[in-house]
């Protein structure tokens, strides 16, 4: 990747629907160049997808939480995540270091629904858990500085 690719990635991280013509205008290149570079960035795996930044509260999922779980069955985190995938309220699952093995990001409609989701998680992963509920999110979707070259 060169500095032009990084400029394109930075602009797209701010607005994934930004028209190629607008990107071209901002970086001083042709629309065809931007189109070709975006295609190449996708092919090489620098850009995975373009997604909408959803307003979860407006969509009826105001409760945002993180559940840490410990894998006590020792069948591997991949196996455990395959089982947890059946719970549609899990936004993401990441292997982590420290006291717990897996960090789940959960969206729920209410605290009672979160309780039901936790019960389901505990049936699948019976080890110790820790739940943290987000009160207010101050920073979200921020892109770290990208190298200039």
Q: In terms of structural class, how would the helical and strand content be classed?
A: alpha+beta
Which fold name is given in CATH as the topology of the largest domain? Alpha-Beta Plaits
Which sequence of strands runs across the widest sheet? 2-3-1-4
* Amino-to-carboxy terminus distance: 7 Å
- Reading the helices and strands in chain order gives HHHEHEEHE
How would you characterize the overall build of this protein?
By secondary structure, the chain is an alpha+beta fold. It has 2 domains: 41 residues, Arc Repressor Mutant, subunit A (Orthogonal Bundle); 71 residues, Lrp/AsnC effector binding domain/regulation of amino acid metabolism (RAM) domain (Alpha-Beta Plaits, 2-Layer Sandwich). 37% of the residues lie in helices and 17% in strands. It is built from 5 helices and 4 strands; from the N terminus they run αααβαββαβ. The chain has a 4-stranded antiparallel beta sheet with strand order 2-3-1-4, with helices on one face. β2 and β3 form a beta hairpin. α2 packs across α3. It is elongated, with a radius of gyration of 20 Å. The N and C termini lie close together (7 Å). The mean pLDDT is 93.
Structure characteristics:
149 residues, 2 domains, four-stranded antiparallel sheet, alpha+beta
Write the layout of secondary structure elements.
Elements: H1 3-14, H2 20-27, H3 31-43, E1 63-69, H4 77-84, E2 90-95, E3 102-108, H5 111-124, E4 129-133
Antiparallel strand pairs: 1-3, 1-4, 2-3
Helix pairs in contact: 2-3
